[in-house]
UniProtKB/TrEMBL annotation:
Name of the molecule in the record: Mannose-1-phosphate guanylyltransferase
Keywords for this protein: Nucleotidyltransferase, Transferase
Native source organism of the sequence: Coprinellus micaceus (Glistening ink-cap mushroom)
Annotated MannoseP isomerase/GMP-like beta-helix domain residues: 451-495
Transferase is among the record's keywords: yes
Domain Nucleotidyl transferase, chain residue ranges per copy: 145-428
UniProt xrefs under SUPFAM superfamilies: Guanosine diphospho-D-mannose pyrophosphorylase/mannose-6-phosphate isomerase linker domain, Nucleotide-diphospho-sugar transferases
InterPro entries in the cross-refs: GMPP_N, ManC/GMP-like_b-helix, Mannose-6P_isomerase_type2, NTP_transferase_dom, Nucleotide-diphossugar_trans
Pfam families per the UniProt record, alphabetical: ManC_GMP_beta-helix, NTP_transferase
Chain spans, region Disordered: 1-22
Keyword Nucleotide-binding: no
Molecular function terms, GO-annotated: mannose-1-phosphate guanylyltransferase (GTP) activity
GO biological process, one term: GDP-mannose biosynthetic process
Amino acid sequence: MASTLPPADPPFQPGNGSASSGLPVEAMFQQIMQAVQLSHRQISELKQECTELRLANASLERQVREGLQWNIHPSRNGTPGFMTPAPSSPKLHPKLSPFLTHAVPSIIMTSPGPEHPHFKPSPLGDNALTSFPFGNRDIPGFYVVIPAGGAGTRLWPLSREGHPKFLLDLTLKGRSLIQATWDRLLPLSSARRTTIVAGPSHVKSIMDQLPDLHADNLFCEPGPKDSMAAIGLAAAILAKRDPEAVIGSFAADHMISGDDAFLSAVAEAVEVAKSDYLVTIGIAPSHPSTGFGYIRLGEKLGLKEAPNSRLVSSFKEKPDARTAASYIATGNYRWNAGMFVTKATFLLQLLQEYKPELYDGLIRIADLWEDEAARHTTIPEIWSHLEKIPIDNAVAEPAASEGRVAVVPATFGWDDVGDFSSLAELLPAEANQPRILGDASLVVTEQVAGGIVVPGSGRLITCLGVDDLVIVDMPDTLLVTTRARSQEVKRLVKKCRDAGHKNLL
């Protein structure tokens, strides 16, 4: 019977200079050595990151020890980055980073000096933490841009399409999120240099809430086109008004604690932007969030006027939990809060390079903007053909790969209030009790831990033996879910739309 086995490979002969696979022994050895060298480089990079983290921790701990005497005196001037001063912006408990000592850092009272009267470093790392005890923080030539959009889906039914979360007072302080954003940024730019980009359905509400907003500083976009078109529109208009304008884009619906640290970081970002960089502000992460994008810190820029500034090595998309934890462990990553500061003309230059069609459309719109008739006829037609894309994908990511994006790391508390779970974290409550947004007398609980209740209908809500629930009771709609699934609320919104309940959205 004939054998069906394949013929055996000929034995390897040392003298013939090749292995049985046909690959020369020298090439195999070279590949092995390259792999070993790559591993050594990666280990070296990890060691360097660990060293930087240890130094940063040691520096911050030293500053905390030296500053405890200051921090126990409530009568001092100014506030550090982990405390919020008295104005009407939200007073929140900041989320501290797990790799930093959980204590309030020291304050070193310094004067900006005559050369840079509007500059002070932001409080982070190996540079001195400073307070700003002076009355005037206005930065000449700096324009604030506040994109105010949203479909009202993530906090539905509390927020709606016609009344999104930036119009809501989610902290019960008497000011909506957009009003708090206005309050926070006004010291840097004044009302004359504060602009808002919003859709037609929100214009009246914004003007009602911000009576000091100049009418010609409210840029009404004909339709939602994501952040690049909105910020690009403001940049194109402001560049025509002031070719030297430095703009800063800050979302209307984010919560920030530590106004002093926030304003410090923005002031430093303006200094970096003057050197032709697209500058973002990186938030020290408090936990390995999978809901935020990340920024990997690159080399220090070495700018005297901006000692904390660094290049952005790369932007990272929202990671899984394990990847997020590995980011935080290195100490070299920050949350991407979507805050950008740059020259208006430089942003347009980047847009012309990376998205020329979008650039051309925005320039055409800016040329026609002051023409009232064109604003109602020609501009909507041009706008409808613009690409819908976030600013990160359009210009930030490609520019970062070419070393044209910088970051100012900062320590203020920040949250984008992306769902009811994150909103619950920002509201006060007794230990193991649910958070209540509204009239607490309308909520009665027994053996209930965690969760958030919104008694918006005015009727009594009672809960027995249920934990971590989200209950939003509005006059026309009731939502019940869990905190763990609160990010999926927008799926319900879609089903309600498909079922014909558009009037409730």
